[in-house]
Structures are given as C-alpha cells and as structure tokens.
Amino acid sequence: MKAANVSCFVFKFIRIHRRELCRARTAGQQSSTTQFQQDCSPGHHLPFNRCIGHILHRRYSTESSVKDCRGLLYRNHGDPSQVVQLEPMELPPVGAKSVLVKILAAPINPSDINMIQGTYAILPDLPAVGGNEGVGQVTEVGSQVTTLKVGDWVIPRDAGLGTWRSAAVLKEDDLITLPSDIPLLSAATLGVNPCTAVRMLSDFEALKPGDTVIQNAANSGVGQAVIQIAAARGLHTINVVRDRPDLQQLTDRLRAMGATHVIKEETLRRPEMKDIFKTCPRPRLALNGVGGKSATELLRQLQHGGTMVTYGGMAKQPITVPVSALIFKDVKIQGFWVTRWKKNHIHDEGAMRTMLDELCSLIRAGKLSAPACAEHSLQDFQKALDAAMQPYSSAKQVVVM
Ligand SMILES: NC(=O)c1ccc[n+]([C@@H]2O[C@H](COP(=O)([O-])OP(=O)(O)OC[C@H]3O[C@@H](n4cnc5c(N)ncnc54)[C@H](OP(=O)(O)O)[C@@H]3O)[C@@H](O)[C@H]2O)c1
C-alpha cells in the first residue's frame, strides 16, 4: 500500500525572532519571546536596562540573596551533562515595570533538553539559563507594576524565561499569577503539559462524555494530565505505554488516575483491541507524542472522520500515514504546539485565565495531581539532568530551590 509520509517533528534550527533584543549583563532580564542575552564575564558591558527600565526603585532586599543567586547556564549547545553549569548570577535592579521573583521549583522537560542540545524550534541567545517552566514567588515589585504584588505565585506566560535559577528580575507582562493554595509541584508543572492536555482535548474534536481518546506516551507529563482531565470530563482513555519490567505498577498508577485502559505498544496490533472496543467506542481523538510506528498504530484505531493530533516526537521518527486512512476513513492529521497557542492568545488574558482556573479547580477537587516527580536541589542538577534523559523513568525531574 502506498503511504504518505508526514514528518512528525520538524527539527528546524530557527533562531528565536527577537522582538526586543535586550542584551543583559546579567541573567535576570527577559523579553516576552526570548531569554535575554546573559553574560557575567568581566568586561562585557551591555545595555541591560533597555527593556526593564532605567529607574531604580528598590534594590534586591538582602545582600546575601543577591550573593546567593545562582542559575544553571549553558554557553554552548551540546550534551546537557557537559554544557550546563551552576553559576553565581548577578541580579539587575528591579525596574518600574518589573518584579523580583524567587523561583520556587522548576521541572526539566524534554523541550528544555532539546533547547540545550540546540535541536528545538526556538533557541535563546547564548549564554542562556535553562528551563522554560516553573513557579516563583514575587518578593519585590517595581513602582508601575499593577497586576502583581509581593507574595503572589507566578508562572511564565511564555517559553524562554530561563527558570532554572534561584531568582530573577522579570517583566510584569511576562508573568501570570497562580493561586498559592495548590501544591507546589502542581504549580511548577502546570503551565506546559496540563495546558497542552486541555487544549488538545478541547480544540480539535467536540468530545462528549462517553467518547474515547487514545494516546501514546501515556505515562509522560502530558499523558498523565490527559488521563486525569479526560476522566474529569467523562471520557474513556486508551493509554499506550512502552513495555517495562514494572508495567503492572505503572498500569495501576495510571488506572488510579482515571485511565480506562492501559496497554503496551504491541497490543495495538493484536486482536485484544477488539475486546477493548466492546467496552468503549473507537476513539474520535488520538494524541501522539511519539511519532514513527507508534503514531501509525494509533491512527489505525481511530473511528471514521477522527483526528490525530501530534504534539511530540519522542521517537524522532517520521509518521507513515496509510493512504486508505486519508481516503476511506477521512482521518484528519493535525499538530499542536502550546507555545504557538500562548503566542496567539497573548492579548487574550481571559483565555489563559479560564484555562488555568479550570486546571486549578480540578487540582482542588483532587481530580488533577502533578505528575510523579523526583525532586532535586540546584546543586544536584547533574543528577537531575541525567535522570531526565533516561528512558522508562516515569518521573518528572523537578529542581526545587
Ligand atoms: N507540542 C506541545 O505543545 C508540547 C507541550 C508539552 C510537551 N510536548 C512534547 O511532548 C512530549 C512529552 O513531554 P513530557 O514533558 O510530557 O515528557 P516526559 O514527562 O518527560 O515523558 C517522556 C515520555 O516520552 C516517552 N518516550 C521517550 N522516548 C521514547 C521513545 N523513543 N519512544 C516512545 N516513547 C518515548 C517516555 O516513555 P518511557 O517511560 O517509556 O521512556 C515518556 O512517556 C515531548 O516530546 C515534549 O516536547 C509538546
């Protein structure tokens, strides 16, 4: 049979378009789309106040905090365990429209690793601080800040802030508040994966209770969020994971989260699938975070007219789409990138707020928990990075400051 090849993950080496290229002498300053240039080396004098503002309102409150500010920087692309270093960082003054944030916790996501390797679709200028997600607490605000106050929990509005550091001076507009009554690990991991799960479950098929969603990489951060949000919406989920020695334990854990079925990749090609479809309808939506054969097998399970949304390419393999799936089953093949969604909704505060409110309500109701996490201190970053790149780990590595 003829097949159409769809590249699942385009590793374009696109440099971030720098709307406001602000070269900062230190790492505390960010634009909304890119991490500011950071250079702590002596003799490098760059106009670091250009975007943050010239007026110095209050300096960082304690001398020791300034001294203690540290971050995980990389000066070259490459193997994260080789190029990432823990370095002391000088914080710039807090400008009129900026705030000082103590970072509380930040996860290590695959996109962070890809950014360091230089293979992600957006790349900050180097040197850069790693990390795109995390939660922090505002400890000081500039004189013209209106939406944030001391004590607020905040998360990045967009990718590229460089969250693997103990503190940062950030623009008010680059942050969005979160209620501080949710668990720290939930807050630290809320802005990327659960948001991706919400959008994919909401924006592609008009799913109703009783419908089915199938996904691979079901034990990933995205996958765990999909299971829980889908369960809260009354949807069945068929969750595909790679075989492993502790498969039963993983299956039990995902089922406890609300997974309807948990199956191995191999099962997708077996007659057992017929038994599964006696208990739930064929999926209207397939969520693909892997690519390659795994994606093709998901596609085969879709019902007539269903949609497969690709959001990740962990296997780094293109997808083969059977021609018959397009012609006779009329399936739709689409992609989703939460970074693009956030950019498209940058002026739609309500859309982001509604999504975060929904997620926080689920958390408070005990229907959405953080993914299984392994916590590390900043000093233990090598261990955290190594663990984040291991297969079959089933845990999100989180740096807790
Ligand atoms: N498009 C978007 O907006 C968006 C948003 C969030 C995340 N993502 C992407 O989604 C993917 C998952 O992110 P995450 O943070 O949820 O990941 P994560 O929690 O770190 O989990 C990684 C997942 O990938 C699986 N995996 C790794 N290598 C694999 C391979 N060769 N074949 C099959 N599965 C493999 C792992 O399975 P094992 O346990 O079997 O190793 C695990 O389920 C990443 O590609 C990420 O970049 C995209």
Automatic annotation (TrEMBL):
For biological process, the GO terms are: fatty acid biosynthetic process
* Domain named Enoyl reductase (ER): residues: 78-399
Keyword Oxidoreductase (UniProt): yes
User: Which stretches are annotated as coiled coil?
Assistant: none
Instruction: Alphabetically list the UniProt keywords.
Output: Fatty acid biosynthesis, Fatty acid metabolism, Lipid biosynthesis, Lipid metabolism, Mitochondrion, NADP, Oxidoreductase, Transit peptide
- Any single Gene Ontology cellular-component annotation: mitochondrion
Q: Name one Pfam family in it.
A: ADH_N
UniProt family annotation: Belongs to the zinc-containing alcohol dehydrogenase family. Quinone oxidoreductase subfamily.
Its recorded name reads: Enoyl-[acyl-carrier-protein] reductase, mitochondrial
Protein's organism: Clupea harengus (Atlantic herring)
Name of the gene: mecr
